[in-house]
Amino acid sequence: MINDWGFRAAIGNSVEDAMFVAHMIARQIPYRFPNIRFIVPHLGGPIPMLLNRLDKQGVRDLGGLAELPSVTARRFWYDTVCYGSKAAFTCACEAFGVEKLVTGSDYPVLQDYEEYRETFAFIDRMGLPAEDADRILHHNAQELFGLPH
User: Mean pLDDT lowest for which of 92-101, 103-112, 135-144?
Assistant: First the structure.
């Protein structure tokens, strides 16, 4: 349906990102393999707004999960590519915590829609405390990749 209506990248990428997270939750991969670090693009697509629903309905549908889907979802890292959407960014911050967000560039796709300096500059305009913005822009990736701060 996404391709039939011409929404390939506009919607398709975010839906695919969400399906990746859903499949990983269903198979309990992050729980079973906690030393593997995953970075999910586009703030996880619609996953942040579905966590409560996954915890209530997904647990019933999947059965036998070792932990709530929201707990598993917080084992991932998420890149900040959201085309400057404050709603999406705020939702992801609340759902996953700022400590799970790393800057992303969406190279080379995003350069067709905005300048790269905007890709990162919008984070400072989201109304976060300065230390949270700094963490997302600089320190989370260092932690993720085991680099010194």
Answer: 103-112
| Tokens 């890292």 sit on residue | 77
Is 10 strand, coil or helix?
helix
Fold that domain 8-144 belongs to in CATH: TIM Barrel (3.20.20)
Q: Are 60 and 74 spatial neighbours (Cβ–Cβ below 8 Å)? A: no
Cα dihedral sign for 84, 86, 89, 93? positive
- CA–CA dist 145, 102 (Å, integer): 11
Q: Write out pLDDT tens, residues 41-58.
A: 999 999 999 999 999 998
Whole-angstrom Cα distance, residue 91 to residue 76?
Answer: 15
| Sign of the alpha-carbon torsion through 72, 29, 138, 15 | negative
Q: If you ran DSSP here, which 8-state letter would residue 129 be given?
A: -
What global pTM score does this model have? 0.92
- In order, the DSSP letters of 21-35 are HHHHHHTTHHHH-TT
- Give the residue extent of every domain in the chain: 8-144
Of 84, 87, 94, 95, whose CA–CA distance to 21 is shortest?
95
